[in-house]
Amino acid sequence: MTTADLPALNAILNGTSAVLLAAGYRAIRRRRVAAHRNLMVVAFGVSTLFLVSYLVHKFAVGPRSFAGVGWIRPVYFGILISHTILAALIVPLALTTLILGFRGRHPAHERLARWTLPIWLYVSITGVVIYFLLYRVYPGPSVSS
């Protein structure tokens, strides 16, 4: 695996996180608490792996310019800006939500999870969208890695 492979890996990790989050939500709605807990812990782990991989890629390769032109540029940057702000917010939110759940503070956990889950899902899904727009749909010039 080279640094050129990391963006695709990051998209896979983001997509996996979204699937795990949805499965975790479904599990808790069906009162399958142990399954919910396990799925959410794995989702957090996958998201942590994503963050490490993302940072390694950014430090090794640097930023990549978006090559799209026309109407897609403001769409892309709107997604990117909201994704970036919410990605910074989700780290403490997800960590706090997990800690509250593990400590058995379920009312507080549930209140915070109502905000954490949709934000985390949005960040995971838009991460995949950003990957496709940046590396597949509008790849621009080739970047050596």
The major sheet is characterized as:
none
The gyration radius over C-alpha positions equals 17 Å
Query: What is the number of helical segments per DSSP (H or I, 4+ residues)?
Result: 4
Give the % helix.
Answer: over 70%
Structural class: mainly alpha
Estimate nothing, just give the exact number of structural domains: 1
In whole angstroms, the N-to-C terminal distance is 11 Å
- In terms of per-residue confidence, which ranges show pLDDT below 50 for 5 or more consecutive residues? none
Order of helices and strands: HHHH
Q: Looking at the chains present, what oligomeric state does this protein adopt? A: single chain
Give the beta-strand count: 0
Averaging pLDDT over every residue, what do you get?
95
> Which shape, going by the Cα principal axes?
elongated
Percent strand equals under 5%
